[in-house]
Amino acid sequence: MRKVVLITGASSGIGLALCKRLLAEDDELHLCLACRNRNKAEAVRASLLASHPTAEVTIVQVDMSNLQSVFRASKELKQRFQRLDCIYLNAGIMPNPQLNIKALFFGLFSRKVIHMFSTAEGLLTQGDKITADGLQEVFETNVFGHFILIRELEPLLCHSDSPSQLIWTSSRNARKSNFSLEDFQHSKGKEPYSSSKYATDLLSVALNRNFNQQGLYSNVVCPGTALTNLTYGILPPFIWTLLMPAILLLRFFANAFTLTPYNGTEALVWLFHQKPESLNPLIKYLSATTGFGRNYIMTQKMDLDEDTAEKFYQKLLELEKHIRVTIQKTDNQAGHSGSCL
């Protein structure tokens, strides 16, 4: 029986490279591409099947920043599949990133220059906006949309006889200082991306605490600094090209510069082949690349505690309850208005 793997954000960047690597290792997989843009997803599907004709590749259209879309996609998936072996929770956004030139300049002459380039700590701020669901867009896309997807797909994921995996694309940029339980959507801050990735780390820990006994396991990964649409939003491609000689030199000292999406998927692919019950839920798995271009895996203990993770999880459950009540009221009002016509 084919293993079924669902990948959000599969049409470009890390998600696309992940699809190619997984099929290169096992073309008997069933990959389900969860993408916002159906036309791009169809093109990716055709390309994957051309390279791996024995594989099974399907598509589900979903916009993680729209909960109605997430509910629709979840319903469709439950109609198609009896179980999911793995979900890569990879889709994410970093809208309108702004580089802090002053912080970059001073960082170049500090003792933390390698750390600064490895994590982008203090270098990036982003704009954010409110979605149609009334939530902060970065939080909803990177965290809450995926949380609702998992909640909806629990019947396909929870099988104690054969464990399923959740693998989150997190970041070295996940900073405890940018996250607050009182403002977990980061509506008052300027680094929503970092906050959302720290929230991802917390959620992964809480999911293990609540679902391991039901056969569901969760882990987080950082793909490193790979040149994707996300990084091209920070600096245009020609600037990255100009910086490449310096970056390649820096890679001898900072292993976070994976540079290509293929290299960035190293830890994501490695995790897929591990027994999920044997992995440490408090560890982040990092894709790394040496100065000579060799890929390998690093581990990093996450800077968090399980009590905070559980409190955050409970806040998400409360928000989910509120959202469902709101949707139900909206549906009822639409029904009543329709009956009066």
From TrEMBL:
Its main location: endoplasmic reticulum. It is a single-pass membrane protein. Its EC number is 1.1.1.210, 1.1.1.270, 1.1.1.62. Pathway: Steroid biosynthesis; estrogen biosynthesis; Steroid biosynthesis; zymosterol biosynthesis; zymosterol from lanosterol: step 5/6. One of its GO terms (biological process) is estrogen biosynthetic process. Signal peptide: none annotated. One of its GO terms (cellular component) is endoplasmic reticulum membrane. It comes from the Eukaryota. GO terms for molecular function: 3-beta-hydroxysteroid 3-dehydrogenase (NADP+) activity; 5-alpha-androstane-3-beta,17-beta-diol dehydrogenase (NADP+) activity; estradiol 17-beta-dehydrogenase [NAD(P)+] activity. Pfam families: adh_short. It is found in: Endoplasmic reticulum membrane. It catalyses: 4alpha-methyl-5alpha-cholest-8-en-3-one + NADPH + H(+) = 4alpha-methyl-5alpha-cholest-8-en-3beta-ol + NADP(+); 3-dehydro-4alpha-methylzymosterol + NADPH + H(+) = 4alpha-methylzymosterol + NADP(+); 4alpha-methyl-5alpha-cholest-7-en-3beta-ol + NADP(+) = 4alpha-methyl-5alpha-cholest-7-en-3-one + NADPH + H(+); a 3beta-hydroxysteroid + NADP(+) = a 3-oxosteroid + NADPH + H(+). Keywords: Endoplasmic reticulum, Glycoprotein, Lipid biosynthesis, Lipid metabolism, Membrane, NAD, NADP, Oxidoreductase, Steroid biosynthesis, Transmembrane, Transmembrane helix. Belongs to the short-chain dehydrogenases/reductases (SDR) family. ERG27 subfamily. Binds to the short form of prolactin receptor. This is 3-keto-steroid reductase/17-beta-hydroxysteroid dehydrogenase 7. It comes from Macaca mulatta. The lineage of its organism: Eukaryota, Metazoa, Chordata, Craniata, Vertebrata.
